[in-house]
Write a structure and sequence with these properties.
This protein is mainly α. The chain is built from 16 helices and ten strands. The chain has four domains: about 120 residues, Orthogonal Bundle (Arc Repressor Mutant, subunit A), CATH 1.10.10.10; about 60 residues, Arc Repressor Mutant, subunit A, CATH 1.10.10; about 70 residues, Orthogonal Bundle (Arc Repressor Mutant, subunit A); about 55 residues, Arc Repressor Mutant, subunit A (Orthogonal Bundle), CATH 1.10.10. Helix content is about 55%, strand content about 10%. A three-stranded antiparallel beta sheet has the order 1-3-2. Strands 6-8-7 form a three-stranded antiparallel beta sheet. A two-stranded antiparallel sheet has the order 4-5. This is HTH HARE-type domain-containing protein.
Length: about 350
């Protein structure tokens, strides 16, 4: 349903005493697209900001008692129904976006919200984003549910899919769970549809390196830096890199600089947490022999190197033939040459 927000606003404003009308129009940005601060309005009228706040509060209180016409009543009813269908609350920016994307209408909408019977605004705070609700206990319920999810997700230590999230929440009320996620500052959804803590790089990548980490985690296998750049640009519309195009060389430079990524083949990288170790093929062979604690056959060395690197067999054999580093025992097995 569409409403002419500007006309509805004008109908209400016209009933406000002229001496206070300018204060309200400027405070909500009804005449100028940009709302003015209490301080700015106070300076204009040579009154304190607290006096401006009092005028605003009194005018809104009186405006609520004005006999609204049918169009206004219809709008308020629609607004209440919309909030109920959304789970009883809605984050402020998303609520506005659901009704209008016009800057002037946004201010009219916020003014009407302030007058809507039974609907309350909850300000931005360390726990939640600013939101509106037609349930007075909404804030406590949202924070309680969000804290429960934060605790359980933190305990799990990794992002979860929607089905697992519903199980963790202990509620089948999906609309309410959705508003908890959108309003809580501690929970978020990543571009791959996984839920977790907002502070996690896997949920909110803070740069190219974090996004590369997320892409590798998602694919669960080593990738060439060109493929990583390609995948990152595929994800642009899902909030990883915004609108910035990532060039292959940019991805490659970030992979080189971050210890989380290990070069496992020509231009191909894996995550260190998968068990890969840094170093050349020669260094990998050395580590394998040290860890084994005994000599190994050529096949055993090859198998273990292949688990760490994407290399040709001959590359491994060529390194094993380095007599300055490796030697063979009487049975033909390889070991590190003693100094």
């Amino acid at each position: 349903m569409k409403f002419d927000l500007k006309t509805i606003c004008q109908n209400i404003i016209s009933q406000i005493p002229e001496k206070h009308r300018d204060v309200i129009e400027r405070r909500f940005g009804l005449s100028d697209k940009k709302s003015a601060t209490l301080q700015k309005i106070g300076e204009s009228f040579n009154i304190t900001r607290e006096r401006v706040r009092q005028i605003e509060r009194d005018v809104l209180k009186k405006a609520m008692k004005i006999g609204f016409d049918e169009k206004i009543e219809d709008f308020f009813q629609y607004l209440n129904d919309y909030l109920k269908q959304s789970g009883g609350a809605k984050r402020e920016d998303l609520l506005i976006a659901g009704f209008t994307n016009n800057e002037a209408d946004k201010n009219c909408f916020l003014f009407l919200l302030a007058l809507a019977p039974g609907i309350e605004r909850f300000s931005d705070n360390p726990e939640t984003f600013a939101f509106w609700a037609n349930d007075k206990q909404a804030k406590e319920k949202i924070i309680q549910t969000a804290n429960l999810l934060v605790s359980k997700i933190k305990q799990g230590g990794s992002p979860v899919k929607e089905k697992a999230l519903i199980q963790l929440s202990g509620t089948k009320n999906n609309p309410f769970l959705k508003i908890c996620l959108e309003i809580s500052k501690h929970l978020a959804k990543n571009p791959l549809g996984e839920f977790g803590l907002s502070a996690w790089a896997e949920i909110k990548p803070r740069g190219v390196r974090d996004a590369i980490y997320l892409i590798l985690k998602h694919h669960k296998k080593p990738l060439h830096f060109k493929d990583i750049a390609h995948f990152s640009n595929d994800f642009q519309g899902r909030g990883i890199f915004a609108s910035k195009k990532v060039l292959p060389q940019t991805a490659h430079n970030e992979l080189i600089r971050d210890e989380r990524f290990i070069l496992v083949g020509r231009g191909t990288y894996a995550l260190k947490e998968w068990g890969y170790e840094s170093g050349t093929v020669k260094e990998v062979i050395k580590n394998i022999l040290i860890k084994s604690g005994s000599s190994l056959t050529k096949a055993e060395v090859l198998s273990q190197v292949k688990a760490q690197r994407i290399v040709k067999d001959n590359t491994v054999y060529l390194n094993l033939s380095n007599r300055a580093e490796f030697t063979q025992d009487q049975s033909g097995k390889y070991k590190i040459k003693s100094v």
